[in-house]
Amino acid sequence: MNFSGLDLNLLVALDALFAERSVSRAGERLRLSQSATSGALDRLRQAFGDPLLVQVGRTMTLTPLAERLVAPVREFLMQAEGILNRGPVFDPSASTGKLRLLMSDYAQTVVMTKALPRLQRVAPGVTIEIAPITGDNSELQRGEIDLALGPNSYLVPGHPSERLFEDEFICLAWLENKEFGRKLSLDTYLRLGHVAVRFGRQRQSPTFDEWFTRHLGYERRIEVVTTTFNLVPQLLVGTNRIATVHRRLALFYQKHLPLKIVPPPIEIPRFEQFMQWHRSRDHDAGNVWLRSLLKEAVAESPLTGPSRPVAVKARP
């Protein structure tokens, strides 16, 4: 490759083109006009002596050379960012940057409602962008986010992580639900209708609690399905339905809604929530500070409430 006269910032454009596989969308990402992005692609094609992206029908496809360049270009840019951002200290009070985080709505409620007031006090110039976490880990692998929060199953191999907290599952119901009192029997648990969370376009992916109860051989009566954890407590009010949710989420909503919490009649394994970040940010002072702040925020919300039930064995 001939670097003579080539602006190496074009690699940023190349990375965007690889990610979007569209000149117009890459331009939007780069905040450039479509003509300027097309011009950048033309210069890159001349520099590499390869078309890089070719039109196939209505989509653009990477050439074999481009496919081989995707990972090294992204790695180069991440290393360059790490060099530029590397410093012995990070002053949150003077920072005017943006922090991008991925997490479920459950984590947004139990973590960020505690973290955001602290962030505003100590880092008033920092912008926070929170996006929903999905099964697609490409944003973390590409280093496009500062931090991801999720269960162990969402961790990406090759990148550092740390357990942030653990939670447990409890049963939640409307305070006026007369079907049970301070205890919930297994028969009542299976007889009552449940509000459940499922994911995927066809709502086919159950959460861990639903998977686990099925694993034990129990089938719950799922009467209401939603795609967000935060809707579950609200959908219980005024009904005799129940839900199996994270205790931290239940305690949060119990402060605002007429709800009661009881131990489940089966023992469900505890739930762990992890932080993960791109390996290039492992020693970044700002990222280290952010992780520390989230740990302090979670420490303000101790796990409290009714004791756990006696374990119930799976059906033969």
Structure commentary:
The chain is α/β, with parallel strands linked by helices and about 325 residues long. The chain folds into three domains: about 10-85, Winged helix-like DNA-binding domain superfamily/Winged helix DNA-binding domain (Arc Repressor Mutant, subunit A, Orthogonal Bundle); about 100-165 and about 270-300, Periplasmic binding protein-like II (D-Maltodextrin-Binding Protein, domain 2, 3-Layer(aba) Sandwich), CATH 3.40.190.10; about 170-260, 3-Layer(aba) Sandwich (D-Maltodextrin-Binding Protein, domain 2). It is built from eleven helices and 13 strands. It has helices spanning about 10-20, 25-30, 35-50, 65-85, 105-120, 140, 185-190, 210-215, 230-235, 245-255, 285-300, and strands spanning about 55, 60, 100-105, 125-130, 145-150, 160-165, 170-175, 195-200, 205, 220-225, 240-245, 260, 270-275. The strands form four sheets. A five-stranded mixed β-sheet has the order 4-3-5-13-6. The chain has a three-stranded antiparallel β-sheet with strand order 11-7-12. Helix 1 (about 10-20) crosses helix 2 (about 25-30) and helix 5 crosses helix 11. Mean pLDDT is about 85; it is low at about 305-315.
Please give the CATH class of the largest domain: Alpha Beta
Q: Give the CATH topology of the largest domain.
A: D-Maltodextrin-Binding Protein, domain 2
Poorly predicted spans: 304-316
Strand composition percent? 15-25%
Average pLDDT works out at 85
Biggest β-sheet strands, sense, barrel: 5 strands, mixed
In the CATH hierarchy, the architecture of the largest domain is: 3-Layer(aba) Sandwich
Q: What order do the helices and strands follow?
A: HHHEEHEHEHEEEHEEHEHEHEEH
DSSP strand tally: 13
Q: Can you tell me the CATH superfamily of the largest domain?
A: Periplasmic binding protein-like II
Number of domains: 3
Determine the N-to-C terminus distance.
67 Å
* SS class: alpha/beta
